[in-house]
Every structure is written in C-alpha cells, then in structure tokens.
Amino acid sequence: xxxxQHIKEEAYQANMELPKLNLVIFTFGNVSAVDRAEGxxxxxxxxxxxxxxxxxNMVIVDxxxxxxxxxxxxxxxxxxxxxxxxxxxxxxxxxHTHSTYATAWAQSQRDIPIFGTTxxxxxxxxxxCAPPMSDLMIQGNYEFQTGHQIINCLQEKxxxxxxxxxxxxxxxxxxxxxKTAAKAVHNSAVLEAIAHMALLTEQINPSAPRLKAALINxxxxxxxxxxxxxxx
Amino acid sequence: xxxxQHIKEEAYQANMELPKLNLVIFTFGNVSAVDRAEGxxxxxxxxxxxxxxxxxNMVIVDxxxxxxxxxxxxxxxxxxxxxxxxxxxxxxxxxHTHSTYATAWAQSQRDIPIFGTTxxxxxxxxxxCAPPMSDLMIQGNYEFQTGHQIINCLQEKxxxxxxxxxxxxxxxxxxxxxKTAAKAVHNSAVLEAIAHMALLTEQINPSAPRLKAALINxxxxxxxxxxxxxxx
Amino acid sequence: xxxxQHIKEEAYQANMELPKLNLVIFTFGNVSAVDRAEGxxxxxxxxxxxxxxxxxNMVIVDxxxxxxxxxxxxxxxxxxxxxxxxxxxxxxxxxHTHSTYATAWAQSQRDIPIFGTTxxxxxxxxxxCAPPMSDLMIQGNYEFQTGHQIINCLQEKxxxxxxxxxxxxxxxxxxxxxKTAAKAVHNSAVLEAIAHMALLTEQINPSAPRLKAALINxxxxxxxxxxxxxxx
Amino acid sequence: xxxxQHIKEEAYQANMELPKLNLVIFTFGNVSAVDRAEGxxxxxxxxxxxxxxxxxNMVIVDxxxxxxxxxxxxxxxxxxxxxxxxxxxxxxxxxHTHSTYATAWAQSQRDIPIFGTTxxxxxxxxxxCAPPMSDLMIQGNYEFQTGHQIINCLQEKxxxxxxxxxxxxxxxxxxxxxKTAAKAVHNSAVLEAIAHMALLTEQINPSAPRLKAALINxxxxxxxxxxxxxxx
Lengths: 232, 232, 232, 232
Fold this sequence. Notes:
Four copies of one chain form a homotetramer. By secondary structure, chain A is an alpha+beta fold. Chain A has one domain (5-224): Class II aldolase/adducin N-terminal domain (L-fuculose-1-phosphate Aldolase, 3-Layer(aba) Sandwich), CATH 3.40.225. Chain A is built from eight helices and eight strands. Chain A has helices at 5-20, 78-87, 100-108, 117-120, 135-139, 142-156, 181-204, 213-224, and strands spanning 29-35, 40-43, 59-62, 67-69, 93-97, 129-130, 166-169, 174-178. The first copy, chain A, has an eight-stranded mixed sheet, sandwiched between helices. In chain A, strand 3 (59-62) and strand 4 form a beta hairpin. In chain A, helix 2 packs across helix 6 (142-156) and helix 3 crosses helix 7 (181-204). Chain A is globular and about 55 Å long. Chains in contact: A-B, A-D, B-C, C-D. The A-B interface holds A 21, 115-118, 186, 189-190, 193, 196-198, 200-201, 203-205, 208-209, 211-212, 214-215, 218, 222-223, 229-232 and B 25-26, 28, 45-48, 72-73, 76, 98, 100-101, 103-110, 132-133, 135, 138-139, 142, 171-173, 199, 202-203.
C-alpha cells in the first residue's frame, strides 16, 4: 500500500462529490488533497471520467508539479495547485470546476457583490475575480502563472486566503480551497449557490444595494468569530 | 423515551423534507415543531448535515430560547423561532431556508408582486419583504430581533399571520410557518415556486399588471373561504 | 369492478406522469380522461397528493360537472374540463398544470411567439393566451366560465382545437388537451419546453424574428400533414 | 446477426445517452453512427421513445438516405445525416437535439460568442449559427438541404469540420459530430453547457468582451495541439 494512501483516499472521495453536487460534467474539474509533512499532494488524473476514478489512480505530485507516484498523467491544472500549496501554508485541499454560474461571473470579469447573509456567512467581501492574465503569462508557464495570478489578486485587494477561500479567474472559472479537500468542495458548492443568487438579485432589482456592514460583520462573526455560535 | 418524542419526530420528518424539495444544500435551513401545552419546541441542531439527523438529536427549547433537553446546540436561528411562537398563538411549525429564488427576492429587498392564481391560492397580497434591520437591532440580540422585525413587518402592513404564512427578511432569506411543521415546509416550497414564476413574469413582460381583485378573492376563497371547495 | 375502470386507469396513469415530468409540485395539476359513449370522464380527486392516488380514487363526472361515481370530491377545476369535453367532440383527455414557464407566460398575459421548429412541430401559430376573465365571469360560475373563456379565445383568434391543443389562461396557467389523456400530458410537457425556450430566445436577442412561413408549414406538415413522414 | 451489428450497437448506446444527459425529452433528437467501409450508417427510428429503443430497431441507411436494413422508418432528419457523412470524410457519428439553451441561441439566429476557456477547450471561434434556409430550399428536399446549409455555413466562415464539431441551424436547433457517435454526444452536452454560460455571461455583463487570442490559443492547444498535455 502506498505511503500516500490517506491523501489518495481523501482526494478520491472529494473528487467524487463534484458530479453529485452538479458542479461538473464529464471531466470538467479536479480536486487535490495535500500531505504537508511529505510535501506532496494527491490529484485527479487528467481527462479521466469520474466513474472510472479509484483512490489508486490518484496521482502524487510535489510542490514543483513533478509526479512522485502514479501511472497516469496528473490534471492539466496541477501546477496551479502546486503554486497555491507552496505559497499558502495552511490549506489542505483545492478544487477547480467550471460550474455554470460561477464560471459565468468569471467570464463576465466581475467580482460577485455581497448581497445577502448567505454570502456573509462565508465572506465579508465581494468574491474576487482576478483579471485575465497578460499574454506573456499565458504564453509562458500557463498553469503555474494561473496560481500566481490568484495569489496576486488576493494580495492586491488586501485579502487573506485564510478568510477568503474562493476566487474567480477572469475568462476562466473558479478555484476554491480549505483546510481539507472536503471543505474546499463545500466551498465550491456554496460559491455556485451565491453566484446564482447574485445574478437573480440583479435581475429582480438592478439597483439592489450591497449588504450593510453591520449584517456582514454579524453573520461572519456568528459563524467564524471568537464568540461564534454556529455548529457544534 | 422523551416526553417530547412527538415533536422531535415531527421536527425530524419536516427537516428531512427540505433537501428532498431542493430547498437547502448542506445545513442551510431549519424546521421546528411546537408543543403548546408544554411551552417548548423541537428544532434542528446547528450545523448538522441532514443525513446525520435523527429524531433523537432534535433539541428541545423553551420560548425564551433556552435549551430544555438535548445534547447538541440548537440552530443558530432558534431565538427567531422562539419569538414567533411566543407572539403568534396558533402556529405549530416554522421553517427557515435560503432557497434560491425566495432568497434572491429577499436580497433585492422587494415584496413579491401577486401576478397569478398560484400566488392567490395562498395569499391575497404581495408576499412581504421586511426591511433590513437597524444596526442597533443587529448588534444587539440579533436572532431575537429578527423575530421582532418579522412581526413588525406584518403589523405595519396590516397583515395577519394566520392568513399570510410567509415572509422575506430583507438581505437575508425567507421564513414560513403553518399549523404544523409539515404545512410550514409546504409553504416554503410554494413560496419558492411563486418567487421563481414572479421573476420570470417580469422578464417576459416588464409591465405585467398585478392580479385583479376579483381573481385574487375568488382563488383565495375557493381554497380558504367559508364556502371553500378545494380538497377533501 | 366499476364500468368506468378503463378511464379511471387512463386518468390515473396520466396524472402520475405529471410529477415525473416536473410539471407539478404537491397537488398543482390534474388530468382527466373521457368515455364519450357513456358521456362521463374520470378526473383526479381534489387536493390529494400524487403519491396517494390510485385508479380507484379517480372521480367519475358527467358533462354537467356532477359526480356520477366516487367517494372523493373531484378536482376544483372539474367544470372547466366538463365544458371543454361538452363543446369539443373529438378530445379524449385534458390536462391543467401550473408548470413554471408556461405559467409565467400566462401571468405575463402574452401569447408565446413562434420562434423555431420545436414550436412549429406542434403549432403553426403563436400559443394563444386568453385574456383574464371579466369580473362578472369570475364572480359567477368561475370554473365553468374558465372553459368558455378558453373556447372563446380560440374562436376569436380563428383557431381550431383539433390543431391547437394548448392554451394559456391569462393570470392563471396552461390547459392542454389531446386525443388521449397521455397525449394531453405530452402536450403539457412540450408547452413547458417551448415556453422556456421562447423566454431564453428573447433574452438572447430582444428583436428575434418570428419563424418564417415556409419553415412553419414545412415542420407542421412533415409531422401532421397528409404526406407526413414523422413517426411510424 | 446483422453485418451492421457494431454500428447498431454504437448508435443505440449513443442515443440512450441523450435523455440521461438531459438533452432531449420524448423523441426530440437522434444519433447516428457510420460504417465507412460499407458506406452506411445506423440511425434512430423516427418517433420511437428512448425507452423502447434496442440495438435491433436501429435503421441502416446509405449515403443517399435510402434504407438498407430495418423494419422501421428512419429519423425524419436522416437525409441531413446522409449529406454530412457523404461530404465530410472523417466523421464517425452525428447528433441532432433540441436541447434548451443551444436551441434558444439557434432561435435567436446568433453565433455563440467565445467568452471563456470552457468554450476555448473545444473551439477557437464563435460557435456558428447557419442562417435560416431560403424558401426554395425549405420547399424542396428539406432535410437534404439542411445538410447543405450546414456545410455552406462552415465554408463561408472559413471553418473546418475537423476542428469545429458543432453548429446551430438558425430557427431550428443544434447539430454536432465527431470521430465516434459517443464523441458527437459529448459535443452536444458541451455545446449545451457553453450555450447556457454564454447567455448568463451577457446577463451579468452586457459588454463582456470576447476571450483574448492568447487564451483561445493556449486552451485549444493544450487540449488539441501537437504538444497537448490534456488527458492520458
């Protein structure tokens, strides 16, 4: 049995949630799970349908994006995952999907405005949309640069990856992360729900105001603050 | 066996309907069922996924919002339920969800206009949207004040909770109620359908008129009036 | 065994298709099937959930809307069915739903424009929307008058119920019919699909033209004309 | 056993995917699979519900559209398939559906703009919409002419059927193709997803720009280029 069996299992289970949550069709998405002690992560093999996945065909990759174990080629987005794990110390899992509503916002190149408490339960700010990458970045090491584009976007907006666990890459699609692969998947489904409701909100009331500060703070604090009283 | 077993069962069954009716994902919603004689209600525990619910992990709470029986922390919205039960004598169940279309209207801070007989079968008026709460109310006892905001909204609009069994809380999401927890869940699903159709109606015809009085009265009366002839 | 067993079975089977085709929630809809020789039809009982239906609890009603056999009260829309059967000699089944997109068009009080061949496979004209009824008609024998409103609408637009098997009742919802109850259900599902696509078409291109005459005729003729070559 | 058993099986399997992928209701669609050596293709029989299909009731047709084997009448769109197989040497399967979003774009008579990398993973250009056919073409050999309309559309836009495997026929609906029937079905599902996201993108940002050239090339090349690194 592989010494990476635990993250292969974790990545496998998390990948299998994507079609169940209607976040992907065919092979449109990937999840990884990291082992910080070993400095590697397990990720979906490229282009393999979800029904053919097993824990054993997850690919083990290091933070430079090189395969450490596994017979299949890893996801084409592997280097983006590698960069995020390498720069952000505390995340345990990463998800990339082309889910319908979040991708539409990414294609629109707009941040998703914070319109309600569903959003505020997860973020105190608009969900950031990184601008499309420069031609130089695209023509270079593209997936590697995608990771840097995400990191730069949060930095320029003064956001902390420990608090904001989701981003749109302009013209492309969403990435989410979290303490575990399962939490990163959870965040992808929440992002899709928020993206859908934000579009509808603007359709119902084109001048709908952003959520007021008192509600933003209250909802985030009751779920994430020092005196939080949500959950067990 | 608990002396509250009957409301634990009722609350459990009603909570389990929410994901089946596509009104919630993950833990986004809660249902309670009241025992008027005992002055308590059973409510979903906070942050527990629906697949892990059992009748036994429902939490028994009194009308001041204090836990009477149960090992888990009750829903973070418990005090809102407590206020509504304490002020409204005849309701037997309450539901809170973040269902997609009803929440989008709440985020838009608009009442849902009465456009058709589907709406009139349930309400003779626009579905009210309570304004977002004042900063003072939010920073105080938030969930308790949410209950008061709902009660005030109906009062100011001259509406009777026995006839209008659904409300939107501005920037937040819907609450519904009814004679039983099952009826309150039914109302949540109906509200979601009405919210969806109202948005589509405005998209198809931005100057669609509200339903005329004769149709409003006819449909409500045939379902709820003295000479009603709907149902068995 | 009832002498009406065959239409009870037919009505039962057709009613059970409505939730499977996502055309109804709860008790929002009803189907009937007629026996022309006996001058009666079988219809869903009022307010009974689909999961509780059986062939035996279908109600047998004559063309005056009076119950001939059955312990339960028939659908509240029974008199509308009775009028249509009595005026239109060749129809064998009728369906009423509050399906989402068709109902939104009814609430918008607009005919559904013919934008494509999907529509033309079923109708050569816009799907008619009957105007809301006069207050006098509503306050009188409402469901009976609804039937007359439908008949008048087709007459005024010069349409033949043998060719146009679907209508919207303004501010209310769709009715469809056909040679059998199953065909009437089929028409309800097709209407819902056409209603959805017509809304999207206007959103994508607000000045989308109606389908040209040559295509309307070609598609309708290949499916319904003397030289039809669709189906077996 | 038929000498065409392999394409009957292939066409049957591919047809059965259409309802599973929510691309058709009732009999709204058809798939064919070709045997180049024999100069024939297997196609769905006309108007037969998917649940009644078997490999054996697929119809074998030659490139002139004449039935070679089979008791049932072939799909009414058979001559369109025949023309495409006869003109385009390397395609192995063809799909026609009336899927909701792709059909709405066809009804709108607009090409689908390339807004993101999901689109670029499949095409470097807007998805073409052929203009509605001339009255002469419609009144003549309609389905045969539909095939020519598709071929002319690609030719006039300078597109190669080996690279662009999907088209909208104005006022009608989409056609897709591929090296196998399964790949053609895959393309139909992808087209539907792209069509949905493009509509949402324009709703979120009416002035959303088309995808920049560097991203178009990068995404297409990494999946289809000489140095492709997507898949196994």
